[in-house]
Amino acid sequence: MTASDSPATEDAESLRRRAVEALTSARERTGVLTGCVDDPDLTAQHSPLMSPLVWDLTHIGNQEEQWLLRTVGGREPLRPDIDSVYDAFEHPRASRTSLPLLPPDEARGYLAEVRGRVLDVLERAPLRGGPLLETGFAFGMIAQHEQQHDETMLITHQLRSGPAVLTAPAPPPAPADAALLPAEVRVPGGPFGMGTSAEPWSLDNERPAHHRFVPSYFIDTVPVSNAAYQDFIEDGGYHEPRWWAPDGWAQIREHDVRAPLFWRRDEGGRRWLRRRFGLLEPVPPQEPVLHVSWYEADAYARWAGRRLPTEAEWEKAARHDPASDRSRRYPWGDEDPTPAHANLGQRHLQPAPVGSYPEGASPLGVRQLMGDVWEWTASDFLPYPGFAAFPYREYSEVFFGDAHKVLRGGSFAVGQVACRGTFRNWDLPVRRQIFSGFRTARDASPDSSYSPEAF
Q1: Is the pTM here over 0.70, yes or no?
Q2: CATH number assigned to the domain comprising residue 214
């Protein structure tokens, strides 16, 4: 897809096809994640950090009913009695097993009934006239919501004990040129277009588009690898307080953190092993490091004499094309992702080796900015200038502030519909169960040709 044939210019039938494809893809993935375990596993709480899988399952259907049947379609409620039970803001995750949850068979039946009626609404909706209908936004929003809960359920699978129940092929090996890549890329200083006002299914925190001045900086060509992170561990990184933010140092001392989550030494203490979706395996040295908190990423960067990139630096590296002086939808251009561009959508159950996906590189040659691992940035989750909450405050606005850090780029667990150069994720800096990694940056000498005061 190019900028000239973006969804904003599509006719209604084309938009309907896109919406059906997005909704169908998400539902197929939901079926895989909930169909591979028996009912006791669906109703169990595998970690206090996560909901029972059956809660996520019914919550997906309840959100779809509320937005697409009731709000968009004007239909009578199917199950108003469960709205409160599946309100994510009313009940913390750790308490959801005590709720009167629908049993798995009833939950599946509810989802199927809602979806059947939603497809009827979609067939009749004009997809014009009002922000929820325009370009099929409400349908795209719900497809993204389901894919985000699919990623959440995949995290629950990673936390779940027991044998492996999910399968997927390993990613292809890194291309031959991966070993020859420069360690870092210089990004020239100057303004660029950050955020979007045109991406039809973008969410409120991605809006509006605005100009941001960013001084020159260097950024890692690839994410930090397991091998590089092991150097930090072996150099005593977890035992040296000078690398850590005070809150991070307190966290690792309190919880005796000595390595990324799910890592452990083998019996001889000679090598690192990791648990991945029920499998115990050696830590692959050339994969991006995974399951690290913001504090761990920040400490590594300090140890390496570098820092985490700001959110603006990350997005400029991912989107700005110096040749045309425009911001792309993705690092490689405006066309939607293909398997040649990025590791997305649970196609693989692990990151690809660093240096993979040369076809997905940015104009300056930065790789793997989309997919593989969410990348922590130095930035707090804050609104853009001119932000307006839509369609409800609880999606973004209630999370703004210095409590949450921004992650960018998506992971191997992110659905394509919920991944783009402007997409913003956020989480608490202590979180490690998420599919998070990072890359580092450093300042460069100023560019005399640019002045931030001019923008």
Answers
A1: yes
A2: 3.90.1580.10
